[in-house]
Amino acid sequence: MELPDLWHQVHNRLIVAIADAITPQIVPKYRVAIEERIYTSIDDSLLLGIADVAVSRRDSTRTGATVTATRLAEPTPVKVPVPEQVTERFLEVRSTQTGAVVSVIEILSPKNEPIVDLQQLVNDIYERARFDLAIDYSQPVKPALAPEDAIWVREILASAIADK
Length: 164
Known about the structure:
About 5% of the residues have low confidence. By secondary structure, this protein is α+β, with helices and mostly antiparallel strands. The protein has three helices and five strands, in the order H-E-E-E-E-E-H-H. The strands form two sheets. The protein has a three-stranded antiparallel β-sheet with strand order 1-4-5, covered by helices on one side. The chain is elongated and about 95 Å long.
């Protein structure tokens, strides 16, 4: 994302959008809950300060009011762990009868996670598992697709058959 400081806003809106999109498909057997976990994280790389001056004690035996500051030979970098509160929001799909969690959906932050081509992973799994031999694509999809999506699927399937 071009502005990483906005990721939390994208994340929060995406969580709500996903919840809104899947809820009509799973009710009345399940419901979607937006949940959060809060924890403290320590960023080891945060540099709080570098000492470059030391103040020595005052010589009280002299009549003048002299305070001496001594420059250190070499500044010493000091790393001080600074705890940061982290809030992560996620979705839980729960049974409406028992309240049991049946699925958890999390949106990972690009700040902390590697970027993965999810579509390529799904394609690879599909090919290795040979799901094409187990799925009858002539049967209607459940839940039913919108008419324009059904046309798109038929075109994709026709193209895949033509390529074989």
